[in-house]
C-alpha cells in the first residue's frame, strides 16, 4: 500500500503542470497504465517464459526420474541422495569448481586492477595500450580456446617452446593433473580486459582533489592509493567480485573444448558435469531429471556465495553517506 | 641548470616514464603473442607445421590456407547462418530492451518499481537453469533444432540492457516529454522521434555488445542445434578443432586460417566501434555500483 500511494503521488506530481478534473485525471492515469504495461510487455513475457517457468519446471523435475523422452516419474530425494553419496564424479566436480573459483576470481581482479592502475596515466600511447589489453575480450571463446589449446600442446605449443628457450622446465599443461586448472585460469587472465575497463572507469571517477589533499597531508603515492583510491573503488570491486564468482561457477566452454573434464576429473567442474550428465552420457542415456537436480545445487551454491559476499561487504565496502 | 622533475617517489620523471613504457610494451607482447602465433600458423605450409622444433616465422606464405581451410567445414554456409541469427537477435534485444527501459523510466504506472527489481534480479539467474526447461518447451512447440531458440529470447528484452536503458532514460529531462506531448505525440511516437535519436550512444553500445555475445555464444547453439546445415560458426569451429583433438596434425594451418576468418567480423566491429565498446562496459561498472 505504501508504494502504491507513493506512485500515485509521483503521478500527480508529474501531471501537476495542468490542473485536471478528477475524471480527466483518471482517464489519463488509465492510459498510462495501459501504455506502461504495453512497453514492458516483452520483459514480462521474457520473465515468465525465461525465468519463472524454468524455475518452477526445474524445481519439480529435480525430484523426478526423467530422460526427456518418457514422462517424468516422481522419485523424491533420490537424485540428490545418489549425487551426494554414490556419484563418483560429484565431489570431484565440487572440488574442481571451488579450486577454479578460488584461483580465477582473485587473480582476475588483481591483474585487472593492476592493468587499470597502470593505464590510468595521461601519457601518450595509453589509449593504444588500453586497446591492446582489451583486444582478447572481443574474440570468440571458441576461437580463443582452440588457439590456446594449440599453444599448450606439449610438443608443438608455443608455451613449452618459450620455457625451453628460457631453460625452464616444461609442462604437460592441460594434460597434467596439477597444471590443468591453472592453465585454464591463465587463458582467463589473458582476457581480463573487461575487468580492467570497469576498474579504469572507476579510477577516473576518483576526484583529483582528494589526492591533492592527501599529498598535502604528506601521503606518498602508495598511501594515497590505499587510503584514497581503494575506498572509492570498493563499490566497483564488490560488483566485480559478484560478477566474477558468477562467471567462475559457470565456467563451461573452457572445459568442454579443452579437457572434457580430464585429466582424472581435475577440471570436471559442475557446469560441465551437468552438461555431460544431461546431454552427453548416452551410455547412461541422457538423465535430464538428474541434471536438473545438479542445476539446483549449482544455483544454490551461487546464491549462497553471492549472498555471503554481499552480506560481508558492509565490512569492506566504503559507503559515501553524502552521495544520494 | 634546473634539476630534472621528479615523481612523488623521488624518481626522475624521465626514468618513471621509460619504465612505464617498457612495462606496457612487455605486457603488450604477452597479449599479442598468441594472436601473432596464430597468424603465422595460418600462413604456414603443411610441412612447416610438422617441423620440430617449429620455426617462429613461416618459411613461405601459404595464402591458399584461407581457401582450403573454410572448404572443410561448409564455412560460408555457417557464416550465413551466423549472420542471420546474430543480426536478428541483436535487433531484437536492443529494440525490446530500449522499449522496456523507456516504459520503466518515463511512464508513470503503478508497479513499475517492482517489475524493475524483478527484471534486474533475473540478471543473476544462471542461464543453465533455463536450458533444460526451455529445451523441453522448444520441443513441445516444434521449434527445437531451429534458430528460434537462438533468436526469440533476444526479443524478450535483456535484463542487463533494461537496467542500463532505465538508468540512461531516467537522466533525460522530463521537459522533452512534455514538449512532445504538447505537440500531440503519444508515448510510442515520443520514443521513436525524441528518445531514440537522443540515446544513440546507448543503443549503439547495446547493439555492439549484443552482436558480440551472439556471435561468440557457444552453449546455446550446442544444446539447441543438432542438424549440421543449421550450425552457426561457433559450433562449426569447435567441431573442426574436435577432429584434430590433442595432437598437432598437418591440418592446424587450415584450422587457424579458418579461425582467423571466424574472428574477423567481431574484430572489425571492435576497431570500428571501440569507443562504444569500452564505454558500455564502463557504464555498466559505474552505474551498477551506484
How would you characterize the overall build of this protein?
The complex is a heterodimer of chains A (324) and B (290). Chain A is mainly alpha-helical and 324 residues long. Helix content of chain A is 68%, strand content 1%. Chain A has helices spanning 2-14, 22-61, 78-85, 90-119, 126-134, 141-151, 158-165, 180-190, 193-203, 208-216, 221-249, 253-258, 270-280, 288-312, and strands at 64-65, 73-74. In chain A, strands 1-2 form a two-stranded antiparallel ribbon. In chain A, helix 4 (90-119) crosses helix 9 (193-203), helix 4 runs antiparallel to helix 11 and helix 10 (208-216) crosses helix 11. The longest helix of chain A has 40 residues, at 22-61. The mean pLDDT of chain A is 88. With 290 residues, chain B is mainly alpha-helical. In chain B, 71% of the residues lie in helices and 0% in strands. Chain B has helices spanning 13-43, 46-50, 65-71, 75-106, 112-121, 127-141, 148-151, 159-170, 175-182, 187-198, 200-216, 219-224, 233-242, 252-272, 274-288. The N and C termini of chain B lie far apart (50 Å). The model of chain B has no long low-confidence stretch (mean pLDDT 87). Chains A and B meet through helix 1, helix 2, helix 4, helix 5 and helix 6 of A and helix 1, helix 4, helix 5, helix 6 and helix 11 of B.
Give structural attributes.
heterodimer; A: about 325 residues; mainly alpha; two-stranded antiparallel ribbon; 2 strands; B: about 290 residues; 15 helices; about 70% helix
Quick gist of this model?
Chain A is 68% helix and 1% strand. Chain A is an all-alpha fold and 324 residues long. At the A-B interface, α1, α2, α4, α5 and α6 of A face α1, α4, α5, α6 and α11 of B.
Q: Summarize model confidence as the mean pLDDT of chain A.
A: 88
Tally of helical runs of chain B: 15
Estimated helix fraction of chain A? 55-70%
Largest beta-sheet characterization of chain A: 2 strands, antiparallel
Please state the structural category of chain B. mainly alpha
Number of helices of chain A: 14
Radius of gyration of chain A: 26 Å
State the total count of DSSP E strands of chain B: 0
Largest interface: A-B, 101 and 101 residues
Query: Outline of chain B, from the CA principal axes?
Result: flat
Tell me the number of strands of chain A: 2
